[in-house]
Amino acid sequence: MESFRFSHTNNVAFALLFYPVNNPGKIKQRIIDAAKVEGTEGDHERDTVNFSFIEASLITSRLHLETAINQAIIADSQGSLRTKTAHSEILFALNPTNNITEAIRRYGVSDKSESLLVVQITDSSASVSDVEIKMKEVVDGTVVPFGELATITEWDRVKKYHKLDKEVRGKGEETRSFIDNIVISSVAMKSVIQ
């Protein structure tokens, strides 16, 4: 379990990397259904899936993810969320365009997701073990060390979504580092250039 602490707020974010994921379609449907159910039952189900389910193959580094989480926390604390929750705001922050539907479709869980980063933003009093148990109850998959992200990232898709196909050639470590810097900067600057 990775943890991200933010000194400017009382928030902490926890993240688990799952690969492979055996139930992506069920997770997606569960999120959709939870949004429709009303009353106490709906509140309970929404709490059960109160995570950001991120397509891990589009995340280039720990800093890329951390920057998006930070942007979501800042937007939430300033009352300037573009989406309904801080968890969906992470997906919005990751997407290079301002299209919320596109962000959820690209960066959220899909029926074809093979890997997921599951993130929960909470306050600093949350129990790491409780959060991990809740994540594992929703995702049927294998938890792998965060260092495995480097082998999961689909660099060609990242380049395509950020329109870097023509500008960036090659597949070496130097090229990946260059792409990582661009996508991190894109996330960091998104709220400034809107």
Automatic annotation (TrEMBL):
Keywords: Kinase, Nucleus, Transferase, tRNA processing
SUPFAM superfamilies xrefs: PF0523-like (SSF143870)
Annotated transmembrane regions: none
Chain's role: Component of the EKC/KEOPS complex that is required for the formation of a threonylcarbamoyl group on adenosine at position 37 (t(6)A37) in tRNAs that read codons beginning with adenine. The complex is probably involved in the transfer of the threonylcarbamoyl moiety of threonylcarbamoyl-AMP (TC-AMP) to the N6 group of A37. CGI121 acts as an allosteric effector that regulates the t(6)A activity of the complex. The EKC/KEOPS complex also promotes both telomere uncapping and telomere elongation. The complex is required for efficient recruitment of transcriptional coactivators.
GO function term, MF aspect, one: kinase activity
Protein name: EKC/KEOPS complex subunit CGI121
Recorded family membership: Belongs to the CGI121/TPRKB family.
Cellular component, GO, one term: cytosol
Subcellular location, principal: nucleus
UniProt source species: Rhodocollybia butyracea
Domain of life: Eukaryota
Subcellular location: Nucleus
Gene Ontology biological process terms in this record: tRNA threonylcarbamoyladenosine modification
Alphabetical list of Pfam families matching this protein: CGI-121
